[in-house]
Amino acid sequence: LKPFRLTAHASSPNPLRVVSIMPLAAPTLAALALGAAVLCPRVRSHPAWDPLAEEEYASMLQLTSRPVPAASRGGRAEFVRQCPTSACCDAAAAATTEDRPLEQPSEGVWVFLFAGAEFCLTDLTPFVTILEEHPALASGWCATYDVESADGQVHSQIIPTSPDACVHGTVWRVPATFYALYRSWWMARMTPPYESIPINVTTINGGRRLSATVLHHGKPLAVADPAKEQAPTLSYIKAEYCEMKGRGYCEAYMAAVYSHLQGLGAPMSVLSC
């Protein structure tokens, strides 16, 4: 596995798709990753990787071959009966009604992120090729805001709920080598840690059903019942809400998130993007 720098071609209709690949030095990758970790509001602490020794970089890459522990997956009883952030779930319902097959990627891995947390992947992509990208939603899952036991801070979560509810986000097909690094990065290097768990999503345009993974809290929540939510900081809310706005999320979904956060006590009237 080698890190790469991607250079967009001006002639490409989508500069994210056509790239020149150049080897990228380990310290440069470390700086990019450190910047991404600071930008992503899920991250509250971070190893000091600047400067990054060669042996430390090698150690990081070795993590990609280790199994990621299912710290919260085995026997978890998480569930919210009501999902106040749910809206615009018709695409998933239509795909299910038509009994469309669940697609497995012929190359790479499908990765889903939700509710404005997309930059937790895209901030790491100066050195990865995005093979495909689609707006998507996951039925039977809900975006909530809960305190993490790992750092005592409120983070957005994805929690099982009733099948008629959904969470919106983005799904990408990425190379398997990048996915291995991404998965290990979030589970072994981040506080709080996030494990990658299976999830089925539906693309909003086209109704394709995809077998993907999503980041899920790797340690127990501070309060066992995820329905007992709290508002994140305004800066955290702004980062995710403005990401949703910039990506053109369904207006009804954004309104539901706005109303829910306001109900949790967040000062939404001062929010601007």
Key traits:
single chain; 273 residues; alpha+beta; two-stranded antiparallel sheet; 25% strand; Gamma-glutamylcyclotransferase
List the helices and strands and how they pair.
Blueprint: E1 4-8, E2 19-23, H1 26-39, H2 54-62, H3 90-97, E3 102-103, E4 109-114, H4 119-122, E5 132-139, E6 141-147, E7 154-160, E8 166-174, H5 176-188, E9 194-203, E10 209-217, H6 234-246, H7 251-263
Parallel strand pairs: 3-10, 4-10
Antiparallel strand pairs: 1-2, 4-8, 5-8, 5-9, 6-7, 9-10
Summarize the structure.
The protein has 273 residues and is an alpha+beta fold.
Please, could you describe this protein's structure?
It comes from Pyrodinium bahamense. This is Gamma-glutamylcyclotransferase. The longest helix is centred in the first third of the chain and has 14 residues, at 26-39. The protein has a five-stranded mixed barrel. Strands 1-2 form a two-stranded antiparallel ribbon. A two-stranded antiparallel ribbon has the order 6-7. The chain has one domain (4-69, 79-268): Gamma-glutamyl cyclotransferase-like (Hypothetical upf0131 protein ytfp, Roll), CATH 3.10.490. Strand 9 (194-203) and strand 10 (209-217) form a beta hairpin. Helix content is 27%, strand content 25%. The chain has seven helices and ten strands. The relative contact order is 0.19. The protein has helices at 26-39, 54-62, 90-97, 119-122, 176-188, 234-246, 251-263; strands at residues 4-8, 19-23, 102-103, 109-114, 132-139, 141-147, 154-160, 166-174, 194-203, 209-217. The protein has 273 residues and is α+β, with helices and mostly antiparallel strands. The model is unreliable at 1-39 and 41-75 (pLDDT under 50).
